[in-house]
# Entry
Amino acid sequence: MNQQTEKIQQCKLTAIVLAGGKSTRMGTDKALIPIQGVPMLQFICRIAEACAEKVYVVTPWQERYQHLLPPKSQFIQEVPLPGETGNEPRTHGPLVGFAQALVYVETEWVLLLACDLPNLQLEVLQEWAVELDRVPQEAIAALVQKDNRWEPLCGFYRRRCLPELNKYIDRGGRSFQEWLRQYPVQVLPLPDPKMLFNFNSYQ
Ligand SMILES: Nc1nc2c(ncn2[C@@H]2O[C@H](COP(=O)(O)OP(=O)(O)OP(=O)(O)O)[C@@H](O)[C@H]2O)c(=O)[nH]1
Ligand SMILES: [Mg+2]
# Structure
């Protein structure tokens, strides 16, 4: 592979959209709340499709969202963890959903998105994406940082973090913050903090 082709391949991106939350605080499924005239999950998938070659939506309840996925987006069924009998909760939080979808990713970088980001801006994601080939090799992710915490559900991860992520999950870990603390992460600039607003109540 010549250098030029290699560069183009590296810039290719897959997106994973998390849509397996229970919306407990909101009290109604956030993925279905209309934003700019369409259900929020569709709004997020459309933006994801504009910056990634493949978009995966990971959820345990595909039937609920079947009608609203745009053409380039496809479902990944979230499944119980190994050893579960079926009496446990159907989901284990965003970190496990992410790990189950990451198995299908073939590009070096993946864009991870929550489905409840009503102010998400395509232009900002695109500006971030073009800088990915400058991220130091040792960084496993490129994320926004706020108050000493990472914003894990709107940013980029290297596919190669999967084995380490699975080990962390096998040990019972479920926290993005705790998991990320062990690795170098590149800081992304956020021009407008409102972009990462995710809403959990109408107040
Ligand atoms: N696939 C998957 N996505 C999840 C899971 N838990 C949360 N998410 C998603 O992660 C994002 C952020 O989740 P939260 O803001 O906690 O939303 P939520 O879990 O639906 O709401 P609460 O029940 O109030 O915590 C949303 O896009 C959720 O759909 C999960 O277990 N599996
Ligand atoms: Mg939650």
Q: What stands out?
A: The chain has seven helices and nine strands. The chain has one domain: 3-196.
